[in-house]
């Protein structure tokens, strides 16, 4: 019953279901009505009620319900109610992000290109503030990651968290690699030697510099060679499926750094899961009724509306991250 939920994106299509206009009720959430007009208010200019027969409308109605439940639960459980200043600050950030997507920096053009309305962006700003505060409050309740958790992950997948800054020179034979090492130890410039002899296609431009990245990106033999290397000292030849490498590690995370990275990663993962579980609990506890013309509300295996006359469970709407 787990589901992937990008809260801000889902909630960015919402309008609080109070003072609803229109007389056709699309759904109710704990007795509060959501009308067709509420949902249509977030469609770009030119859209009309013809869209209510579409899967998109049903998806947006689902998102509206999810957001209404979360807003209400966040307020009732934690008293989360953003101020006008907080909302305005976030709104201006979203506006700047949208303007950056347009060649002329035109906000209205960016809205049109992304199928958005200003009302949607303004509401997204409020929901971002709520989501951020909610995550912070829930993070306080997440059980701490233990040393045992960290050590188990370190032993199983330590190199997935270990970063290193590496240069290398790749040649065809061990003899050539030995000659390369000798030239480097004699003081020749690494980039110059790489440009002359390395069979790596980009070596002339990069000088053999692979940059800084995670060791897991490399084939195992190369990763092990880099991990065993002394920082600043060229290695003996290392063979991989690509040929023979001479490796120079300029920086690499030590075990303490790797363990701290693991702790932070596990903590973030636990907080994210706790956040999603809280959302699902709020949705399961809510009293949601959907107009049978649009389908049936379900929360298992994920929140959404099952279309009329179908037994298929819906996917949550896929929205485009245009506001951060």
List the helices and strands and how they pair.
Layout: H1 7-11, E1 25-29, E2 32-35, H2 36-40, H3 55-78, H4 84-100, H5 107-113, H6 118-139, H7 147-157, E3 163-171, H8 174-185, H9 190-197, H10 203-206, E4 209-214, H11 220-228, E5 238-240, E6 243-252, H12 255-285, E7 288-290, E8 296-298, E9 304-306
Helix pairs in contact: 3-6, 4-5, 4-6, 6-12, 7-12
Summed up, the domain count is 2
Tally of contiguous helical segments: 12
Q: Strand order, biggest sheet?
A: 4-3-6-5
For the biggest sheet, the summary is: 4 strands, antiparallel
Radius of gyration: 27 Å
Strands, count: 9
Strand content: 5-15%
Low-pLDDT residue intervals, each spanning 5 or more residues? 1-22, 315-324
**Helix proportion of residues, in percent?**
40-55%
CATH architecture of the largest domain: Orthogonal Bundle
Quick check: average pLDDT? 86
- The ordered string of helix (H) and strand (E) elements is HEEHHHHHHEHHHEHEEHEEE
Helix/strand-derived class? alpha+beta
Report, as a whole number of angstroms, the end-to-end distance. Answer: 27 Å
Question: What CATH first level of the largest domain would be assigned?
Answer: Mainly Alpha
| CATH fold-level label of the largest domain | Triger factor/SurA peptide-binding fold
Question: What is the overall shape?
Answer: elongated
